């Protein structure tokens, strides 16, 4: 009888204890309990097992340890009881906070904050060269002032396809009187400079691609929304894109673009973008500049909202805040209340529409409900809806002047010393392209009098 081969054992997940702090003078987008629930989902996505949590309300963070000394003693007891190996804070900790907390809680416990956790998740989910470079840059910029055990944990955990996220590698001999910490910092700064140079090449390539795309006059529709709202499912429904879909946070990270035919035979490029989240690390926003520019340069945004989530409206606010941060809040938006197939009463979605401004539509990306109406609305916004604008275009931007004449409706045109002043109407898909040249002053200054 053949001997049964034992199945490979799965290593146990690390046990994490969560800490949430509500600062009375710094109102949060989500209530403390809901924010901790989201942190628990992030921890699970990162492969951690949540074994407990505690909260504290403060007027301001403690300068040394963020939380009070009594709460630290309570956490030490709870960590021993739950056998936790990681203490995970829902707030971003300063390097000083990390050092003091590690000393107070002991060497057997690692301290991580929400930012470190999100960076870790992004590292696991980045697969393209660009995504790997972006995440690696964000991680190194976060680690530079925090060369502690939390940093070595992230270095060990970081993944997503290679690169140098997993180790320092190639550290040379120390000079006279130079500490290992100084060597590490110097090596990290060198790596950051290299990564930024590589990403500038990526950004330049994207700019050339966008210029080529603009010449083809095919509009771009960017799918934006809170993480796990259903953007990838929607793109799959529209274009059979086979984008990876999972019921978890940040299931997809690298952008995917597909061509979609609209009613009337028009074509548009639909781009699935990284999901947003409250307290999105600033390092990620900076590192993902090239990718986020795809959103800022889009002709139309489809804001996908998970209408079944208890904090749907707050999540939508977080998305709007991020769009403003990346200077994409001027682009026309259609809000899609997704997952109505999961509602006990689909009419509840109709009631929810009243809470959102602008063009709003209830859909189910999974079941295909409302998709035809959505495509009709997209077609109207891109090709049939004209907006009144007044722009002053420099003479060297002759391509934009021609584009206004070809695609827009010119009411009045004046040649001034500062450029061509055009008053007229433009289709919604072109508004973003003319945004830098919007002219709000109704009267020309004496320096700009008509020639």
TrEMBL record:
Keywords: Coiled coil, Cytoplasm, GTP-binding, Magnesium, Metal-binding, Nucleotide-binding. One of its GO terms (cellular component) is cytoplasm. Transmembrane segments: none annotated. It comes from the Bacteria. GTP binds at residues 225-232, 250-254, 272-275, 338-341, 364-366. Its cofactor is Mg(2+). Pfam families: GTP-bdg_M, GTP-bdg_N, MMR_HSR1. Residues 219-386 form the Hflx-type G domain. Its main location: cytoplasm. It is found in: Cytoplasm. One of its GO terms (molecular function) is ribosome binding. Residues 178-212 form a coiled coil. Mg(2+) binds at residues 232, 252. Belongs to the TRAFAC class OBG-HflX-like GTPase superfamily. HflX GTPase family. Monomer. Associates with the 50S ribosomal subunit. PANTHER family: GTP-BINDING PROTEIN 6-RELATED, GTP-BINDING PROTEIN HFLX. GTPase that associates with the 50S ribosomal subunit and may have a role during protein synthesis or ribosome biogenesis. This is GTPase HflX. It comes from Anaerolinea thermophila (strain DSM 14523 / JCM 11388 / NBRC 100420 / UNI-1).
């Amino acid at each position: 009888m053949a001997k049964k081969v034992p199945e490979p054992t799965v290593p146990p997940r690390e046990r994490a204890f969560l800490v949430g702090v509500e600062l009375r003078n710094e109102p949060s987008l989500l209530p403390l309990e809901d924010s901790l629930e989201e942190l628990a989902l992030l921890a699970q996505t990162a492969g951690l097992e949540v074994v407990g949590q505690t909260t504290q309300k403060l007027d301001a963070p403690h300068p040394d340890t963020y939380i009070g000394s009594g709460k630290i003693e309570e956490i030490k007891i709870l960590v021993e009881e739950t056998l936790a190996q990681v203490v995970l804070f829902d707030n971003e900790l300063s390097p000083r906070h990390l050092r003091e907390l590690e000393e107070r809680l002991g060497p057997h416990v690692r301290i991580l904050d929400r930012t470190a956790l999100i960076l870790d998740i992004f590292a696991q989910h980045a697969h393209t060269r660009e995504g790997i470079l972006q995440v690696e840059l964000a991680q190194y910029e976060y680690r530079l002032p925090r060369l502690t055990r939390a940093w070595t944990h992230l270095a060990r955990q970081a993944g997503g396809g290679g690169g140098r996220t997993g180790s320092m590698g190639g550290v040379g001999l120390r000079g006279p009187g130079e500490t290992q910490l100084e060597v590490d910092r110097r090596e990290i700064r060198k790596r950051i400079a290299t990564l930024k140079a590589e990403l500038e090449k990526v950004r330049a390539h994207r700019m050339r691609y966008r210029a080529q795309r603009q010449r083809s006059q095919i509009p771009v529709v960017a799918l934006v929304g809170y993480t796990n709202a259903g953007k990838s499912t929607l793109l799959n429904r529209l274009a059979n894109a086979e984008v990876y879909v999972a019921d978890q946070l940040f299931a997809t990270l690298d952008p995917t673009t597909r061509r979609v035919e609209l009613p009337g035979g028009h074509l548009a490029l639909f781009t699935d973008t990284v999901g947003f989240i409250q307290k999105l690390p600033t390092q990620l926003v900076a590192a993902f500049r090239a990718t986020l520019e795809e959103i800022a340069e889009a002709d139309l945004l489809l804001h996908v909202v998970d209408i079944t989530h208890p904090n749907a409206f707050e999540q939508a606010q977080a998305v709007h805040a991020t769009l403003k941060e990346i200077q994409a809040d001027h682009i026309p938006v259609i809000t899609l209340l997704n997952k109505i197939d999961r509602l006990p009463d689909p009419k509840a979605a109709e009631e929810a529409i009243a809470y959102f401004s602008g063009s709003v539509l209830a859909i189910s990306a999974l079941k295909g409900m409302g998709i035809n109406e959505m495509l009709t609305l997209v077609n109207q916004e891109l090709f049939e809806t004209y907006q009144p604008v007044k722009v002053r275009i420099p003479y060297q931007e002759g391509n934009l002047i021609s584009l206004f004449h070809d695609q827009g409706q010119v009411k009045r045109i004046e040649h001034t010393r500062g450029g061509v002043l055009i008053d007229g109407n433009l289709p919604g898909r072109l508004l973003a392209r003319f945004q830098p040249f919007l002219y709000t002053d109704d009267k020309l200054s004496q320096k700009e009098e008509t020639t």
